[in-house]
Write a structure and sequence with these properties.
heterotrimer, A alpha+beta, B alpha+beta, C mainly beta, B: Gyrase A, domain 2, 2 domains, five-stranded antiparallel beta sheet, 4 helices, 20% helix, globular, C: four-stranded antiparallel beta sheet, 6 strands, disordered C terminus, 2Fe-2S-bd_N (chain A)
């Protein structure tokens, strides 16, 4: 019911939206909840377990009941809080947890079965037969329970992530937060004021009191005008600060585009990481309920929300309202309603000594013991000194007192302490370094107190920032003491709800205690109290009070459960903003990418790089046909392959040679200028880190090559060795990977191809600078294929041109490009390792390169490599494998001694790489086999249960092709 | 053989919103400079100075940009004799340059860079990340130069462009 | 979590790579296998003050010794590995072919 002349919504801007297909009208500034209440809609959803009809309970982000689905094109967002979702033209909202309709819900039968559905019933009921667990019970339970539903489609909308920095972060823009922000603004520090609401002002707008004799909203407007005009202040509305982290870092979720119709490029949400020098937490407090029989009927609401609906939205949630409270604060709601002309039928105050001076009947020392009304409240039963009576009412505002929002103060392991006077948990100072609670979240409940406390705490925070300022004078406002008589539940027959979202009743909590789930953390998990999207914001304290009562402990002894981030729900899409599809990881493209794609090469990921898998030709229909052809092409003619992804590190300085001797197992100081050497690098723990070739370009100038996979790793390692062990050596290095495009030209006609380009005569493992039409290039005579091979490097800008040129030249010689598949087969035939073999668990001894650890010098990892257990017959050693029959073998397969049972205990090793060799006309594998080198010539049984392979293989030397290296040396 | 054709890392046209423009920039000649121990680079570098962390030394078009521990990138011609006192490596083709200038440059990059970009003023630079990409960020008048690995240029462009589009849509909201 | 790099200033944890105890800054000597084992693997795992080696991977490429409290998460001190005194003295290094 809309009240004329009240509220801050824009009466000149009507907004039409639909709820369950029915069109309704609200005003700009309305939430779904306020607009539905204005239209007299009371039932907005069905509850989680019992499918009871539920209405709006609160006016804020803590709402446990009014969870709805928002439907957009391609989107369906469940569990949206109707109290948070702003309406906009065309907004489509659906109730959830009901079928076929909100009014007639089949699953409401659960409510009849409630005696059997108490806490823990899953564990007790669905015990046997065991085979029903996953196939029968779980699907049934999943369908019956659950909150809301998803579209089942990918979320194609835009989301954002962003970083922000400030000196002073103020969380919450109520009286305390606004004062703190003003204090910061005037001190000239860099301020961010964040508030979860679309309009700042917090309870000043909801309570509708006066400040300095004028409406509070006027004061709020003036303060906001000052803050908006201040260049050092950023106001972040619709932004919930959701977590406190180390180093003054906070997470926050901004609802960017959720209050307007979807539009291109407008993000739905932004996930902020805010780094603050100091923080004032002015999050306020939340009203808590009192549990009594059937307190979940639509129309039963939080007392403070009633005045929020009146003052902010100009809506009365009922026509004949009653109030049930244990404190003075709830009187404000009664007065606000009466002032707005709403009939207040009664105030039921639990306190015997409560004032009865109101313009409505007040029952002191009374309690609400029951409610009536099928689809919404129609009457309450009140027990007072004279007995029980019924009061007809369609809306009951309940207040059990206020709980400071201590959440963020507890995100770094802090626990709040119980304040007996306030009957509430209050934060402990210093629980989060640099975060100071102010106002209601610190247990200061009067408006005047909050205004003054906001200024006081901001002065404190500014002092830490080195700004000594005086607190600005707080304006005059309501300053009534907070008087509360704790009452958590009205005992009696019937179910009394604590957690509305998860349908947890006082009976469930008592059952938990009875079954010895008496710790608050156990009770929580047994009953699911506080585990719904609202995280029990207005029910947790009540539940633990009931638990305290049931276990005979005090509330302080019972303690709270752990407060964890996020404070309010954060969509994974926002946290992962930008990470969808190609945004998942950077894509690295070689200069030849376009040329390879032109040749229809499927590009495969190699780390972040994209490399051609193979180059299909003519009538080839499978990758194997192309791969086999490319292998033969390299072996018999010439192939061209882009190897730019290999890491290249330029190393210079008088101590460069000495440095390489330290990081490599073998000696590089003796390498002549103009020559290349293969090197092996160990980690400190003696295992192989990486391998690659290093060229000596000058006396004090080397160019190191790393594997593609370990390029970053090696750079990090070199930095470590240099900075930790030889900071005073004259050695400088820098990555030049990206600066050079490098192509392998391999095969018996490689020399002919090179000769057509440039006149250079290189010995095996030689290198030289050359020029191609004015472009400085480098040529290395190295090979990863076992054929005579060259690698030609040019500055990257010329990479594509050179690749196309080399491929064209190769084609005139009967060759062409080859991809990763062929490269892999070629190196397996030659027994060359990759990170499939040096996977971090293998030693130089294992791969047969123990001889590369120079005896003449020390090197990183040498000491550790000498440990027992890293060498010897017990080690798995690298060998070659050939199946005895024409059969496929697989990497990942395990090896067994023929005759042994295939069991883990008998495992003899595993296969790391396989490929089909067209030259050998059969599969070849590289494997690690226990005492492998001594078993060459023997048989092993290769078993791959996943791919159903069981083949006898002959153990061979890992070098299958050109063992003497004749072809390599030309 | 004939002349090899040089290609830009991206070869894309500028995009923008209002006066905010994202464009590919030609970095020209880039050389990494790492002074050798005890060497007197100051004499050779004059009028440039080897920059302190986060600093850009510039004179005319020549710039010496700090890029890491004991390392700077020289944009422009290499002074005579520098190779004797510092390790020099050509980086002209290793990095792709984007520029983002105009109103909102700070806000757009704040989507991707975990630094307080308001504090980065012309004459300053930073090594950090752009999303998951290594980044050399140089503050210039009215905005930034964004240097990423050449191979990652497309991803970088895509991410900045997307941030720019979303920022533009926000501005209209 | 934030770490103040001595060269780059305060930075987000995402820019750093964590290696492990500062014990790694000492090179074990060839031959003393117990010392090698201890240096590589034996850690006190204290709840409290630790000194660990981190790498400013996405920044200036400095290796750092970060003194940090594993209980409060407070970062007490950040030093450049290259500047940490005594490391070179402790490390009897015989690199090079000579």
């Amino acid at each position: 019911m809309r009240i004329d002349g009240k509220g801050l919504v824009d009466r000149s801007a009507p907004v039409r939206f639909t709820f369950d297909g029915v069109a309704y009208e609200g005003f700009r500034g309305d939430t779904v909840a306020s607009a539905l209440l204005a239209n007299g809609v009371r039932v907005v959803g069905r509850s989680f377990k019992y499918h009871r009809p539920r209405g709006v309970l609160t006016a804020g982000s803590e709402e446990p009941n009014a969870l709805v689905e928002v439907i957009e094109v391609g989107q369906q967002t469940p569990n949206v809080r109707a109290t948070v979702q702003e309406i906009f033209p065309g907004l489509e909202v659906k109730s959830q947890n009901r079928w076929p309709s909100l009014k007639y819900d089949v699953m409401a039968v659960n409510d009849m079965l409630s005696p059997f559905l108490s806490a823990g019933f899953y564990y007790k009921t669905f015990m046997w037969p065991r085979k029903f667990w996953e196939r029968v019970y779980e699907p049934i339970i999943r369908r019956a329970a659950g909150l809301g539903s998803l579209s089942g489609r990918h979320d194609e909308a835009d989301y954002e992530k962003a970083f922000a920095f400030c000196d002073l972060l103020v969380i919450g823009a109520g009286p305390a937060g606004l004062m703190a922000a003003v204090q910061g603004a005037r001190a000239g520090v860099d301020v961010i004021l964040a508030d979860e609401n679309p309009v700042m002002g917090g309870r000043l707008l909801a309570d509708g009191g006066e400040i300095d004799g004028r409406p509070a909203s006027v004061w709020v407007a003036e303060v906001l005008a000052e803050l908006e005009a201040a260049p050092n202040v950023r106001l972040m509305v619709r932004t919930s600060v959701t977590g406190a982290y180390d180093g003054g870092t906070f997470s926050a979720l901004e609802r960017v585009g959720l209050h307007v119709a979807a539009r291109a490029n407008l993000p739905r949400e932004c996930f902020w990481r805010i780094v603050a020098g100091q923080t004032v937490l002015a999050a306020g407090a939340l009203e808590r309920s009192i549990a009594f029989a059937d307190n979940d009927r639509p129309g039963v609401m939080m007392a403070s929300s009633l005045r929020a609906y009146v003052n902010r939205y100009g809506v009365s949630p009922g026509k004949r309202v009653t109030i049930f409270a244990n404190n003075d604060d709830a009187r404000l709601s009664a007065r606000a309603l009466m002032a707005a002309g709403v009939d207040v039928a009664a105030i039921v105050d639990t306190r015997a000594d409560a004032s009865t001076l109101e313009d409505c009947p007040v029952y002191a020392g009374a309690e609400v013991v029951g409610t009536k009304g099928r689809h919404g409240l129609s009457a309450i039963t009140v027990r007072h000194r004279g007995g029980e009576m019924q009061i007809e009412t369609d809306c009951l505002g309940v207040s059990g007192g206020w709980n400071p929002l201590v959440h963020l103060t507890c995100h770094m392991n802090g626990r709040p302490v119980w304040d007996a006077d306030l009957a509430a948990f209050v934060p402990v100072a210093g629980a989060v370094p640099g975060l100071h609670a102010a106002g209601a979240c610190a247990g200061v409940f009067s408006t005047q107190g909050c205004l003054a406390d906001g200024a006081r705490v901001a002065v404190l925070a500014l002092g830490v920032l080195g700004r000594a300022v005086r607190a600005v004078d707080a304006p005059v406002a309501e300053d009534a003491p907070y008087a509360v008589l704790p009452l958590w539940e009205v005992k009696g027959k019937g179910r009394a709800w604590l957690d509305f979202a998860n349908d947890v009743t006082t009976k469930d909590v008592r059952l938990a205690a009875q079954e010895n789930f008496a710790s608050v953390e156990h009770m929580k998990r047994y009953t699911t109290q506080g585990m719904a999207p609202d995280q029990g914001k207005n029910s947790n304290v009540g539940a633990l009070a009931v638990l305290a009562d049931a276990t005979g402990r005090s509330i302080a002894q019972t303690g709270t459960t752990t407060y964890r981030a996020p404070f309010s729900p954060v969509s994974i899409a926002a946290m992962g903003a930008g990470g969808r599809g190609a945004g998942f990881a950077p894509q690295r493209f070689m200069t030849s990418h376009g040329a390879s794609v032109d040749r229809r090469a499927p590009m495969v990921e190699a780390g972040l790089w994209y490399r051609p898998s193979y180059f299909p030709k003519g009538a080839e229909t499978t990758w194997r046909e192309a791969c086999d052809r490319e292998v033969v092409m390299v072996r018999e003619a010439v192939g061209v392959c882009d190897v730019s992804t290999l890491g290249k590190i330029d190393i210079q300085g008088a101590d460069a040679a000495r440095f390489l001797d330290l990081v490599y197992t073998n000696v590089f100081s003796t390498l002549p200028v103009g020559r290349v050497r293969y090197g092996l690098m160990l980690r400190a723990d003696g295992h192989v880190l990486d391998d690659g070739t290093t060229a000596r370009l000058g006396e004090n100038h080397y160019l190191m090559t790393t594997t593609t996979a370990a390029a970053g790793l090696v750079m990090r390692h070199l930095d470590f060795v240099q900075q930790a062990y030889c900071g005073d050596w004259d050695v400088r290095f820098v990555s030049v990977t990206e600066n050079w495009a490098q192509f392998a030209v391999a095969g018996p006609r490689a020399r002919a191809l090179l000769a057509s380009l440039v006149s250079v005569d290189l010995p095996f493992m030689g290198c030289s600078r050359v020029e191609f039409g004015g472009v400085g290039a480098r040529v290395f005579r190295i090979s990863f294929s076992g054929e005579e091979g060259y690698e030609i490097a040019v500055p990257s800008r010329y990479g594509e041109a050179l690749f196309r040129d080399l491929v064209a030249r190769a084609e005139t010689l009967g060759g062409g490009p080859y991809g990763m598949e062929a490269l892999n087969v070629l190196r397996i035939e030659k027994g060359f390792i990759t990170h499939a073999e040096i996977d971090g668990r293998t030693t130089a001894f294992d791969i047969g390169l123990a001889g590369m650890i120079s005896a003449r010098k020390d090197c990183i990892g040498k000491a550790a490599a000498g440990r027992s257990g890293l060498t010897g017959a017990a080690r798995l050693q690298m060998v070659g494998l050939r199946p005895v029959m024409q059969a496929a073998i697989t990497a990942g397969a395990h090896l067994f001694t023929p005759g042994d049972e295939v069991r883990r205990e008998n495992d003899q090793g595993y296969v790391t790489s396989v490929g089909y060799s067209p030259m050998m006309e059969g599969y070849l594998g590289l494997a690690f086999l226990r005492d492998g080198r001594a078993r060459i010539g023997e048989m092993v049984r290769l078993v791959d249960h996943l791919r159903d392979i069981d083949v006898l293989c002959e153990v061979c030397d890992p070098v299958f092709h050109d063992k003497e290296g004749v072809k390599l040396r030309g | 053989m004939g002349n090899l054709i040089a290609k830009r890392p991206l070869g894309v046209d500028p995009v923008g919103h209002g006066d905010l423009v994202l464009a590919e920039v030609d970095l020209g000649r880039v050389t990494s400079v790492a002074p050798f121990a005890g060497a007197d680079v100051a004499r050779v570098l004059k009028p440039l100075v080897f920059p302190a962390p986060g600093v850009v030394s510039s004179k005319g078009d020549a710039r010496l940009v700090w890029t890491g521990r004991g390392q700077a990138f020289l944009f422009g011609a290499v002074p005579e004799g520098l190779g004797a006192v510092a390790a020099l490596s050509d980086q002209s083709d290793g990095w792709a340059g984007l520029s983002l200038t105009g109103t909102g440059a700070v806000d757009v990059l704040a989507r991707l860079v975990p630094l307080d970009l308001r504090a980065l003023v012309p004459g300053q630079c930073a090594r950090t990340t752009l999303g998951h990409m290594p980044l050399i960020l140089i503050a210039v008048f009215g905005g930034f130069e964004v240097l990423v690995f050449r191979s990652m240029a497309r991803s970088a462009w895509h991410e900045v462009e997307q941030a720019l589009r979303m920022w533009g849509a926000r501005a209209q909201c | 979590m934030r770490i103040t790099c001595p060269l780059c200033g305060p930075r987000d944890r995402r820019e750093f790579y964590y290696y492990g105890s500062e014990d790694y800054l000492t090179q074990p000597e060839v031959g003393d296998l117990d010392a090698v084992d201890a240096q590589l693997h034996l850690r006190d795992n204290v709840a409290g003050r630790v000194r660990d080696v981190w790498y400013h991977e996405a920044g200036c490429a400095s290796w750092l010794v970060v003194t940090r409290d594993t209980v409060s998460h407070a970062v007490e001190k950040v030093e450049l590995v290259a500047n940490v005194k005594g490391i070179l003295a402790k490390t009897k290094l015989k690199g090079g072919a000579a």
